[in-house]
Design goal:
single chain; alpha/beta; Nucleotidyltransferase, domain 5; 5-stranded mixed beta sheet; 5 helices; globular
Length: 163
């Protein structure tokens, strides 16, 4: 199964493509999609849609795992990220790829075992759990890996419950 993990944003969107079979995960690729701050917001959303649609075409994922939104402080940023996240979900829907959502707490617990894990802990556990010879950077890409691994863990649990 190919899982596309997405860490939503509007300036930087993390993505990770994970191949999952039973309890084994292999990172196919990870990275970020970026938009420029000097471009008007609707055009940034259009770029996010086009770039994410390309991810679906290139990698042909079976499922998409997306982090649900959680904001403590800045409402303006929250609204912009919510718009961008909606565009990402739309791209998955247009590609006819099922969408699964996970809270930041679920993702951190799945990746590190701790819901209060810091960014560097998520990056280090992504590296260790996937046997990578590099530390996944930037943190948006590492977060996307963690989101994909979170979904893979759910699948592994389902496999084990059916055995």
């Amino acid at each position: 199964m190919i899982i596309l993990g997405i860490d939503p944003g509007y300036a930087t969107i993390g993505y990770a493509v994970l191949e999952h079979e039973k309890a084994k995960n292999l990172l196919v690729t990870c990275g970020v999609l970026k938009t420029e701050s000097n471009v008007e917001f609707p055009k940034r959303l259009e770029k996010i849609f086009k770039d994410s649609a390309d991810l679906f075409l290139i990698h042909n994922p079976d499922v998409t795992a997306v982090e649900s939104l959680y904001f403590q402080n800045n409402q303006k940023t929250a609204m912009a990220v919510a718009h961008a996240r909606g565009v990402l979900v739309l791209a998955a829907q247009v590609a006819k790829v099922p969408i699964f959502e996970y809270t930041p707490l679920q993702v951190k617990v799945a990746m590190t075992g701790c819901g209060r894990a810091k960014k560097n802990q998520v990056m280090e556990m992504a590296q260790k759990s996937l046997n990578l010879d590099f530390l996944p950077k930037p943190d948006d890409a590492a977060d996307a890996i963690a989101i994909a691994v979170c979904h893979a863990g759910r699948l592994t649990t389902e496999y084990q419950s059916h055995d």
